Each structure stands twice: as structure tokens, then as C-alpha cells.
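Recall that a protein's primary structure is simply its ordered list of amino acids. Everything else, from secondary elements to tertiary packing, is in principle encoded there. The following example makes that idea concrete.
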Amino acid sequence: MKCPKCGSERIQMTVSQERKKHGCLWWCFFGIFGFLAKKQNVSVCICQDCGHNWKIQQSK
């Protein structure tokens, strides 16, 4: 795997959790229950040379 910005092969992969982002109207209707929404794992690559980071597209 190569960095799309600088072409380096020194890549670190990490997995983080994030919630789906919603608009203002969604929060008005669902409020506090939005915080109970399930988080999903997201794989992120970080280039060790230039610091560029990007999400890895996972097939379903």
C-alpha cells in the first residue's frame, strides 16, 4: 500500500470507532437517543513520512 500524497510505503493502519453524523433536524427528533446509536469501526491509514491520513474503503 502506498500513500496517495507522497508515494511512501511507510504506512501505519489503525482502527477507530465513530458514530454516523446526523443533521440538526435528526437531533431535534431523536435527541439523547442519538448518543446510544451504535458506533462502527473505521480503518484509517497514516503515512509515516508526510502525515497524510485516509480511510480505507471496506467492501460489504
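Helices lie at 24-30. The chain has a mean pLDDT of 80.
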